[in-house]
Amino acid sequence: MTVLLEVSSLRKVYRSRARMTPALDGVSVEVRPGEIVGLLGPNGAGKTTLVKCACGLILPDSGRVQVAGYDPVTERSTALPQLGAVLEGNRNIYWQLSPRQNLWYFGRLRGVPDATIAQRTQPLLASLGLSEHADQPARTLSRGTQQRASVAVALIHDPSVLLLDEPTLGLDVSSTEAIVRQLRRLAGEGKGILVTTHQLEVAEGLCDRIAIIRQGRILLNEPTPQLLRRFEADRATVVCAAGVLRAEDITRLSSAYPGLRVKTNGNDTWLRYSARDGAAPESLFVDLWRAGYAIRSFDRSASLREVYLQVVGDTAGESERADNHALAQDDPR
Amino acid sequence: MHLLRMIRAELVKGLQVSVRYPIEFIASMVGLGVIYLAVYWTNRALITPGLTASPLVWSLVGFLMWYYVAIVVGSLSTSLQNEATEGTLEQLLLTSAGPARLLFARLVAIVLRGSLEVLLIFGGLILLTRVHLVCRAVPSLMVMGLSMIGLAGLGFALAALTLLYKRVSGLVGLFTLGMLVMMGVLGGRQDTLVQVLAAVLPLVQGSRLMQQLFSSGMPVPAAWVPQMLTLTLNSAGYLIAGLVLFSFADRRARQRGIIGQF
User: Fold this and answer.
1) Separation of alpha carbons B196 and B179, rounded Å
2) Which residues in chain A are closer than 8 Å to B96, comparing Cβ atoms?
3) At A272, which CATH number?
4) How many angstroms separate the CA atoms of B150 and B170, rounded?
5) Which of A94, A147, A151 should be substituted to probe chain B, the one whose Cβ sees the most B Cβ atoms within 10 Å?
6) Is the pLDDT higher at B254 or at B39?
7) Which positions in chain A touch B99 (Cβ < 8 Å)?
8) Cβ–Cβ gap A57/B94 under 8 Å
9) Strand A236-242 vs strand A161-165: parallel, antiparallel, or unpaired?
């Protein structure tokens, strides 16, 4: 099988008496075996709607979802055993029960034989660092441990596709790292994983491919290294020069490098310059050196954060609209 | 086979929660016992004129009907509401069995567990009151079982409303009360109007048959076969209607994207 999760031309509009809110507008995403795809976007961009459509929890207006070749709505009994999900804004597990009891409960509901549940439970708990908390009620565990238990529950039936909506939201570094390690291991076993996150450093280190979604449309969908290289070409170079630049040097450099921005803290000076604005940034190093300034450091590699901000831009208003929509949707009237 | 495993999973989970919260479990058992005793003493003091059965029999039938109406009609709706509030509903619905089968398995587990609790309470109370109770177990179980199938249909209908409107506990209470009033008003009467209503309304036929079975002497009623047939058709009708409504509501909630909201 070449594609484990196929989402094509998905459209969804939330309709209420007061208004219609478009959530997905022709979204297409694919996840292949062994691939981790990161879905990034501002609040209200359509990430959660996409994940829930892929699970069959929300019915799209049009388009197609295939999980391991099966439709999760019309072929539920064959599609859903291939799918595991951790959904954002949900507890996902019963807090009255321990992680081990949750694994047994969901395993049985999903038709996993008792012998297999027994066989899988201990390695799964161990791989997510849950062994010592395995028999404590989930309500007494930390947020990170609860979230790791949710991931374990999503894996008890050994699905080939994993959908994780904000799996590291609110987690500390070690909990995040435990989940990231587990996801890499699962991808290594050939599972296809779709992750939504706002933690761009997590996505950059984890995902093989990044898709950025805004207002229900995929703006960009590329392998992570290729994406970073493409944005590297026109990204700003930040140079830290030792000492405070003289006024005449600043005037001269500003005319040679249009768009140059200079900041100082009284000891050192930071110069920010984008190649799009004219001369090659390398010549800035030479000019600074000729003027007698030592170069303390420079940074030119594009980060996913910069790529994201360039692609998505200012979305504060959008987030606010999305939050209002969520509130309106929460009201079942 | 999978359904049996799901029922088992629900039974084990219920047991684990009871062990985790023992006071709640004990309180519910004591509460049931107190309610039963209240019904028993009220019946003894104000026994319905013209009826020959002992207060214990009437209180037993009344209590059983009330108890099963309460758990079968209300538990699916309450369960869905709790799952949505606790944030486990969507994870639960990722089970390949589908929501109706899942809820059916849960309902069976709740009824089995409830029946065990009732048996424990009755066992204790019968020993305490030293009353010899005669009843025909097989016909009684058949009538109860068929009545519960019809009630399950109402349970699914209320669960459907819960999926769409989220908080319907007031309606569930009203329904439960309505069932009991209907049972009380119509259950003991034998006129033509009641026979017609028994064929159409839920629970009335089951209640009438139960009262006949538990009456003194415990004969199998003369019109047993047609009455059982009426009960079967009535219950099947309500179950099918409830499932159809639930299926519609499930689809509608998924279309509106509100399935996990509360």
Assistant:
1) 17
2) 76-81, 110-111
3) 3.30.70
4) 21
5) A94
6) B254
7) none
8) yes
9) unpaired
Indicate whether A24 pLDDT > 50: yes
Phi, psi of A171 (to 5 degrees): -95, 155
What residue of B is the nearest CA neighbor of A55? B94
pLDDT at A325 over 70: no
Range ranked top by mean pLDDT from A190-204, A269-283, B129-143:
A190-204
Q: Read off the pLDDT of residues A110-134 as tens digits, 9 standing for 90 and up.
A: 999 999 999 999 999 999 989 999 9
Q: Given CA atoms A169, A171, A172, A175 in this order, what sign does their dihedral have? A: negative
B140 near B57, Cβ under 8 Å?
no
Q: Which residue of chain B is at minimal alpha-carbon distance from A85?
A: B91
Burial B203-219 (b: 16+ CB within 10 A, else e): bbbbbbbbbbbbbeebe
Residue that is written with structure tokens 């959908």 in the block: A163
* Full-model pTM: 0.81
What residues make up the domain containing B249?
2-256
Residues A289 and A218 in one domain: no
A243 and A152 both lie in a single domain: no
What number of C-beta contacts closer than 8 Å exist between A and B? 110
Confidence of residue A329 (pLDDT cuts 50, 70, 90): very low
| Spatial distance between the Cα atoms of A14 and B257, rounded to a whole number of angstroms | 7
Q: Which of A1, A151, A193, A161 is nearest to A82 (CA)?
A: A161
> Taking the mean position of all CA atoms in its chain, how far away is CA A203?
5
What is the DSSP secondary-structure string of B121-172?
HHHHHHHHHT------HHHHHHHHHHHHHHHHHHHHHHHHHHHHHS--HHHH
| pLDDT above 90 coverage of chain A, percent | 59
What's the pLDDT at A327? 39
A67 bridge partner residues: A5, A70
pLDDT in tens, B83-121: 999 889 999 999 988 899 999 999 999 999 988 888 887
How far, in Å, are A44, A85, A193 from residue A200 at the CA level?
A: 17, 21, 17
In a domain, B208, yes or no: yes
Range of the domain at A147: 5-230+307-330
- Does residue A297 sit in the same domain as residue A313? no
